[in-house]
């Protein structure tokens, strides 16, 4: 069996062999007492999803090519099928979506289950921590000492102006409540957007600036 994803819309999500049939010698005579069929082990594949897809929910389509038994129960045919994978809002990384008995079929087996396991795609701005989302904000030393307003992006495309009136130290954290990912069991509620501050220090200072800082900055 082969699997394609919907990026193209059925582009190269990757092709995977599921119980490929080999054309061997002629079939042996049927035994007096046929063997009991055993289901093949599950075929597991990683399904990468973006934080936006987790935030809004989405449906991915996978085209699979697999072998199925003909009505005579002996010969097989190759057929395509589209699997619709519904990703619900807030689902956690590691969530499994199972399609029972969609693997290759032969006269001697029970088709394997196909299992997709969610894996978060790396994001340009955010990191996930459960239902919380982490964002690193880089500010200058001047902004850290004198105050500033930082524009914080959200997963749904908005921008929140975050005023910072206190001194911001490296590693300072501020929390925007309810701006994270939906809770899987209660999608109307969301986690938080956690802003972690990084302070950019100047590479060098002029002698005049050093003297001013010595005069005005506290010693402790």
TrEMBL record:
Q: Where is the Chaperone DnaJ C-terminal domain?
A: 44-202
Q: Which GO terms describe its molecular function?
A: protein-folding chaperone binding; unfolded protein binding
Q: Which UniProt keywords apply?
A: Chaperone, Stress response
**GO terms under biological process:** protein folding
GO terms under cellular component: cytosol
* Family annotation (InterPro entries): DnaJ_C (IPR002939), DnaJ_subfamily_B (IPR051339), HSP40/DnaJ_pept-bd (IPR008971)
Q: Under what name is this protein listed?
A: DnaJ heat shock protein family (Hsp40) member B5
Which organism does this sequence originate in?
A: Myotis myotis
């Amino acid at each position: 069996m082969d699997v394609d994803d919907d990026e193209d819309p059925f582009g190269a999500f990757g092709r995977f062999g599921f119980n490929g049939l080999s054309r061997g010698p002629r079939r042996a005579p049927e035994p007096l007492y046929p063997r009991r069929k055993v289901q093949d082990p599950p075929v597991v594949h990683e399904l990468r999803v973006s934080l936006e897809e987790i935030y809004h929910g989405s449906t991915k389509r996978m085209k699979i090519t697999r072998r199925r038994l003909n009505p005579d129960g002996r010969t097989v045919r190759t057929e395509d099928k589209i699997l619709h994978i519904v990703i619900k809002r807030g689902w956690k990384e590691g969530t499994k979506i199972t399609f029972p008995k969609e693997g290759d079929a032969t006269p001697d087996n029970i088709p394997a289950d196909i299992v997709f396991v969610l894996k978060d795609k790396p994001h340009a701005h955010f990191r996930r921590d459960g239902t919380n989302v982490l964002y690193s904000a880089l500010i200058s030393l001047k902004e850290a000492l004198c105050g500033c307003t930082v524009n914080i992006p959200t997963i749904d495309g908005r921008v929140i102006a975050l005023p910072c009136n206190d001194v911001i130290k490296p590693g300072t954290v501020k929390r925007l409540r309810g701006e994270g990912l939906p809770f899987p069991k209660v999608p109307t509620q969301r986690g938080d957007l956690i802003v972690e501050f990084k302070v950019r220090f100047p590479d060098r200072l002029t002698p005049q600036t050093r003297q001013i800082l010595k005069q005005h900055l506290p010693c402790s």
